[in-house]
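S., here's the first fold you wanted:
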Amino acid sequence: MQNERFKSTMAVIVAVVTVLGAMAACMATVASSNAGDGDFTGLETAIRAQKAESINHIYAYQHYRAFSDYSRYLELGNLMYDPNADEKASIANGTIQREVWGIASGISSIFFEPRYISPDGTYDIQRELDEALAEDAQNADLNPAPYFEESDHQRRRSSSLTADMIVFAISFWFLTLAQVTDRKIKYVWAALGIMLGIAGILGMLIARYVV
């Protein structure tokens, strides 16, 4: 009678361990899938950020080139002033000066933003790049780091749960051995199986709340 009760108890514990092992396998699969999704989303975000940065650099340096043309025409206009020139030359120089300054004004109003001109007369290209990136970040997610961090977290969880599956498998083996053994050593097998089962449960909790 006692032997039958022991075998029945072992059968119940084996069933519980089997269910727990299946749960660990399911959780490991979900975590692995989430890790893959995180990698994909992170890679997609990184590509989007790199694309935005490349486009911003292209536009910024186009604007910088326009600023260089603006500076050249502005300086050319300044050079047209000659305090020693006669009246006729001054009129001619003044006409040319107004033309080149008009070109400079047209360039500054169409091809780049004058607000990026620093007080010292240089073009603050880094400010333009920073503002363009900030504007892009308002319209789309450009930070891949959180996705890769979450992916690593899910991958560690999957690895921990996979190790739990092995623990539950060994526990199942010891419990089955205890179930089919008639000698007193069956209690040792049962104890080992139960301890491993408890260790597996602790591992699942750690993977769920700690890892």
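And the second, which I think is the more interesting of the pair:
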Amino acid sequence: MSLLGQKLFEGEIALVTGAASNIGRAVAVRLAGEGAQLVLTDVDDGRLKAVAAEIAETGGTARSIVADLSVKDGWHTVRDSVADTPPAIFVHSACPKRHEVDTALNVSEETFDAMLTTNLRSGFMLGRDVARNMVRDKLAGRLLFMTSLHAFTPRNLPHYSASKAGMTMMMKELARDLGPAGIRVNGIAPGAIPGGGFATSDDEFQPKRKIPMGRFGEADDIARAAVGLLCNELNGYVTGTTLDVDGGLQLFNWIDFPQN
């Protein structure tokens, strides 16, 4: 269903990574509702096909590509699959699961490498390749990277925070180079969105105290923001920026001060 009653991306091809669940799935469904033709990629074949079927049931079109972006050349599978039909929209939402035990002194080399390869290396290589085709075909393309508030604030998960910090600068570098070609590159930093790599309870996190808007976010909160940021008619002069979609979470200091 379109947010504004019209198909904002009618006929455009949109590639979404990490599309099998949570934020990636929500973004893909929203883009399909705006008329985009979806190319979905994820490592989870079963859930990926379920998302493609969900889009098809509502009259949209989607095809799926199973690829593991945590390995060095995993992004080649996606690149080769879209070579003949280059997307005008690229959303990089793929991210390995986060485990609270993987702190600075505990995270393994394999876990560290998988996080940086998925988020940073594959995101850059795939995004750059897609952008080259946008330039070649003179598309008014858009790239969107799901970064994090923890690009600037420690998360006690160094591999995750470092990868998101790198993604933020990568986004800016791409925006600077691609702007003259009419291609916009931006990021979204989600707040506390249960599911995927974040799971907690209201009692544990106390969202009414930590989040000014008094609730956890939902994947669709991010998807709606993505639609607005990707739409050239609404935000055609916005590039190289990160939009915080967090209910105001970043307004709080991480230290718990006494209530009195």
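Why I say that: The radius of gyration is 18 Å. Residues 109-136 form the longest helix (28 residues).

Talk tomorrow,
H.
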